[in-house]
Amino acid sequence: MSPIRAPLLLGIPVKANIYKLSVASQTCQRVMSVERIFDEFGHFKRFQACLYFAAVFQAIACGIHYLASVFLVERPNFVCAPPGNITDVLYGNHTGASLEEVLPFFKPANGPMVVRTAVGQQWELSTCQRAQRMNPTDFTYEQVVNRTTEKCDENYHYVYDHSEVYQSIVTDWDLVCDREWLAKLCQPTFMMGVLVGALVFGDIADRVGRRRILMITSLCQFVFGVSVAFTGNYYLFMVIRFLLAMVSSGYLVVVFVYVTEFTGNKVRTWTSMHVHAAFAAGIMMVAITGYLVRTWWIYQIILSTCTSPFLFFCWKFPETPFYLMAKGRLQETQVLLDSIACFNGLEPGRLRAEDLLEPKEALLEKEVAMGRAQPAEPERKLSILDLFGTWRMAWRTVTVWAVWFIGSLGYYVFSLGSINLGGNQYINLFLAGAVEFPSYLIGCYAMDRVGRKRTCAPALLLAGTACVLIIVVPNDNEVLVIILSMTGKFAIAIAFGLIYLYTCELYPTIIRSLAVGSGSMMCRVGSIVAPFCVYLADIWQYLPQLIVGILAFIIGVLTLLLPETLGEPLTSTMEEAEALGRKNSPDQGTKDPEEGVEMN
């Protein structure tokens, strides 16, 4: 996520004493009585519902593009091709007249294939090398000592098994053996684009408006998504995918802000959390399309066009009233307010844009405009170092960053690694997306009933426990492994979904946006590391789950030391934020949840 404006995310009136006046543009940044809009027009009536579901529909495309590489870079069975035409093939108990007949049964760890060519040569074929038998007498599978070995490189061809994967970028551009690392860079490079997109579009949206960014990024998602299918080489493919990552991230960043600025605080927890559910629907679409289409460029086109209907009506989206008011565009705000009233079956004109200004601020602006007052001096710019101003806040920041990191790392390890669990990889990925729906429902309910900390910490502990249990499960019990993996994904999705709101509540107004923004950067770091963690499955199948499990368990324990924020008012100063969780009583000591000690 981007550094979202916390008051807009939470739907709480901004309380501040200083507002800047831009002399160049003569526009003022206004403070709005935010909740009055929703008290008058409803927190989630017809107008907001239509906008919400339309905007969230395109978020499905973000989930699609984030996980599409799972099947784009799928590597089927392959061997180094021999010279000449093949007449006979031996592999264990399997025989055939062509490599294609035997390749579905090939496992590199069990030994090479033995083939005989039309000119009588015999070759032992492995994935990245081939060996010619010298002066063979019989055509048998037993390996012989007298042979010459050649390493396969870019000058050689490979033969691929097309029974499961007809065409992927791996088979098109021979991204195997010495070039395998190029295929493994596909997802990390995409996540780098996600990081850049979050930084770029999050800032631009505050300058030019949410509506324009939604339109531009959704259009670019379609254009870049389809363009990926027509790239003729690997390097152009990576460049277009990087741009696609930027605009996908930009849309996801801005749509969170957009939907929260159109929904009231009574439903905002649910509406913001369930944007993630649209992302999960995109993962399920990837699984279904990957199962039905085994040619990568057709697969890419289908995925890129499935949300294209959004392009026909996104240009009708209005700008948010908060952005219009912040830019001083009162007339446009009034038109929007009247439209909301009509669409919701209410009388137009019942709320004026001028009424959304705080009385003192409206008076100040009028005085400044008439030249009878001077604009207030801007506040000191805060830096990331202010998150570490005291030992108490430093410890809190480190813990919160760790939750952001493990939330993202675990989310993508469970998603990307689901195809390595055994069984049907398409069903596994589909389940990895489907399991998020109940996680967000339960997470929303729990965080408003038992608290943020008491939901986040148990979720991380459950994810850690599930990951560790995978290790002790027998290798042949694939069903139990999949159940435990989905349990881990379910739990990590809860923690990942609520950390946005929890971070906002743990920090004061003066530094809240910085806290969310820095946490978002840790989230992106986790998403970049996740593909490399998944690749560790080449060393041991369950090593990625073990790493995530240990980290999730440790960070879950640390989360128990954070203060609970349920029912607590938002803090405005660093002193108030530091006091969260402290309960003073004349007869009892003060229990410090972050330090876990009794202080008298």
From TrEMBL:
<dbReference type="InterPro" id="IPR036259">
    <property type="entry name" value="MFS_trans_sf"/>
</dbReference>
<feature type="transmembrane region" description="Helical">
    <location>
        <begin position="479"/>
        <end position="502"/>
    </location>
</feature>
<feature type="transmembrane region" description="Helical">
    <location>
        <begin position="426"/>
        <end position="443"/>
    </location>
</feature>
<feature type="transmembrane region" description="Helical">
    <location>
        <begin position="271"/>
        <end position="291"/>
    </location>
</feature>
<feature type="transmembrane region" description="Helical">
    <location>
        <begin position="297"/>
        <end position="315"/>
    </location>
</feature>
<dbReference type="InterPro" id="IPR020846">
    <property type="entry name" value="MFS_dom"/>
</dbReference>
<feature type="domain" description="Major facilitator superfamily (MFS) profile">
    <location>
        <begin position="139"/>
        <end position="567"/>
    </location>
</feature>
<feature type="transmembrane region" description="Helical">
    <location>
        <begin position="393"/>
        <end position="414"/>
    </location>
</feature>
<protein>
    <submittedName>
        <fullName>Solute carrier family 22 member 16</fullName>
    </submittedName>
</protein>
<feature type="region of interest" description="Disordered">
    <location>
        <begin position="575"/>
        <end position="600"/>
    </location>
</feature>
<dbReference type="Pfam" id="PF00083">
    <property type="entry name" value="Sugar_tr"/>
</dbReference>
<keyword id="KW-1133">Transmembrane helix</keyword>
<feature type="transmembrane region" description="Helical">
    <location>
        <begin position="49"/>
        <end position="68"/>
    </location>
</feature>
<dbReference type="GO" id="GO:0022857">
    <property type="term" value="F:transmembrane transporter activity"/>
</dbReference>
<dbReference type="InterPro" id="IPR005828">
    <property type="entry name" value="MFS_sugar_transport-like"/>
</dbReference>
<feature type="transmembrane region" description="Helical">
    <location>
        <begin position="238"/>
        <end position="259"/>
    </location>
</feature>
<feature type="transmembrane region" description="Helical">
    <location>
        <begin position="455"/>
        <end position="473"/>
    </location>
</feature>
<feature type="transmembrane region" description="Helical">
    <location>
        <begin position="514"/>
        <end position="537"/>
    </location>
</feature>
<keyword id="KW-0472">Membrane</keyword>
<feature type="transmembrane region" description="Helical">
    <location>
        <begin position="213"/>
        <end position="232"/>
    </location>
</feature>
<feature type="transmembrane region" description="Helical">
    <location>
        <begin position="543"/>
        <end position="562"/>
    </location>
</feature>
<feature type="compositionally biased region" description="Basic and acidic residues">
    <location>
        <begin position="579"/>
        <end position="594"/>
    </location>
</feature>
<keyword id="KW-0812">Transmembrane</keyword>
<dbReference type="GO" id="GO:0016020">
    <property type="term" value="C:membrane"/>
</dbReference>
